[in-house]
Design goal:
Length: 330
């Protein structure tokens, strides 16, 4: 197995050469938000979708657009509104008088990186159209089904402070996002740097193209080969089971506070995200620290707390913190 890990390490070293350059290029445009950028790159390499939660003005849209430009990928931004229709995302059939026939006009989903801005502002029918495309990686228009690009990533944003006129995402749909990332305010020093960079005469710089979709595809193939030890696999399963059976993991106080634990999708997502995180750090094997580093982003939207927990101000974040303290690290 040692030889296998050495080979994987070499592959990781060869295929991850673009990572440092990509981070530098994004940092030329985006001040701070290192964790958000790292999580977006993790999702990109793990082939998983991301839900971004944060107040307006934290550069969520700019970060995603910058990442798309830096990897020379297609980018579509869809502003979700209450009057949006599923066809506005997927596309529709348009009658052509010249040919006396219907022609397909593909919607904005037929791109590489899709920004679903304020996803909770659109009704359930539109949300389900997007989430079906995320899951199936294809779209049906009329009687025909069309595959979406190989590199297809949905990055949805939610505003946590303004809930009037919104349609909350059902838990089963939220579960389809690999990661839920909380975007926070910048530090005082970062805010000053933002002021200097964005309010200057030159304005925001444009990122250079430092990678290609083909490189991302090759990197994904290497990520899938990254080694996870049996003990790490057991650790991941124990973490997920602790959300369902807290009493069996010395977390009795959470028995009445967790309504629903994480699904098997969380187990798969945790393993895939940990592999991608190891790749970003130049390793061909997963460590417990990789699992712990990415674990909160994988689990926070998959643990549903009870009304009793809300009354006691216990959140999924509190549960996750206790989980990692209680479950034995291999």
């Amino acid at each position: 197995m040692e030889l296998g890990i050495k080979e994987i390490n070499k592959k990781v070293a060869d295929e991850s050469a673009f990572v440092a350059e990509l981070k530098r290029e994004v940092a030329r445009v985006i001040v701070g938000q290192d964790e958000m950028v790292e999580r977006l790159m993790t999702a990109l390499l793990a082939d998983g979708h991301v839900l971004l939660e944060g107040v307006p003005g934290l550069a969520k849209t700019l970060t995603i657009r910058t990442l798309a430009q830096a990897i020379d990928a297609g980018f579509s931004r869809i502003q979700f509104t209450p009057d949006l229709l599923p066809a506005d995302l997927t596309g529709t059939l348009i009658f052509s008088p010249k040919d006396s026939d219907f022609k397909v006009r593909k919607g904005p989903l037929f791109s590489n990186l899709i920004l679903a801005d304020e996803i909770n502002r659109a009704p359930a029918k539109v949300q389900s159209a997007l989430l079906e495309a995320m899951q199936e990686r294809r779209v049906t228009i009329g009687n025909d089904t069309y595959p979406l690009p190989e590199l297809f990533l949905v990055l949805a944003t939610e505003n946590p402070i303004e809930q009037e006129g919104t349609y909350p995402l059902p838990e089963a749909q939220v579960d389809r996002f690999m990661l839920k990332v909380r975007v926070t305010y910048p530090t005082k020093a970062e805010e000053r740097a933002i002021l200097e960079r964005m309010a200057g005469a030159a304005g925001a710089p444009s990122p250079a193209k430092v990678a290609t979709p083909q490189q991302i595809e090759r990197a994904r193939r290497v990520v899938s080969q990254i080694y996870i030890d049996e003990k790490i696999k057991n650790y991941i399963v124990e973490l997920v089971f602790a959300t369902r059976e807290p009493a069996a993991h010395k977390l009795e106080r959470f028995k009445s506070l967790i309504a629903y634990g994480a699904s098997p999708r969380a187990t798969i997502a945790l393993a895939q995200a940990a592999k991608a995180f190891a790749f970003l750090n130049g390793r061909g094997y997963v460590t417990p620290e990789d699992v712990k580093s990415i674990g909160a982003d994988v689990l926070r939207h998959r643990i549903i707390v009870t009304y009793e927990a809300e009354a006691e101000n216990v959140t999924s974040e509190n549960v996750i913190q206790s989980l990692f303290e209680a479950v034995e690290v291999p």
